[in-house]
Design brief:
The protein has 5 helices and no strands. It has helices spanning about 15-30, 35-40, 45-50, 60-70, 75-80.
């Protein structure tokens, strides 16, 4: 899975909005980043970078994250205002 880390000044509003929504959903379930990483099959560092809007997430990874949160990629995007 290619990862494109965004420079601090160049973080996109979309990456920030999606990352924030992932964090909101994860915390609503009472999951730590570490536990969520285990459930989703992703690394804790990757989850942290996504939540801070430092990575742009692919559609397939967003789908994987959504399923791990008991929701869908489309609902994550909708709740993020996208």
């Amino acid at each position: 899975m290619p990862r494109r880390k965004l420079a601090l000044a160049k973080k996109s509003k979309i990456a920030l909005a999606i990352g924030n929504q992932i964090r909101v959903q994860r915390k609503a379930l009472g999951l730590s980043q570490e536990r969520f990483a285990e459930l989703s099959g992703l690394s804790k560092n990757y989850i942290g970078n996504l939540e801070r809007g430092e990575y742009e997430v692919s559609v397939s990874t967003l789908d994987q994250i959504g399923r791990s949160l008991g929701t869908s990629a489309s609902l994550l995007l909708k709740n993020a205002g996208l």
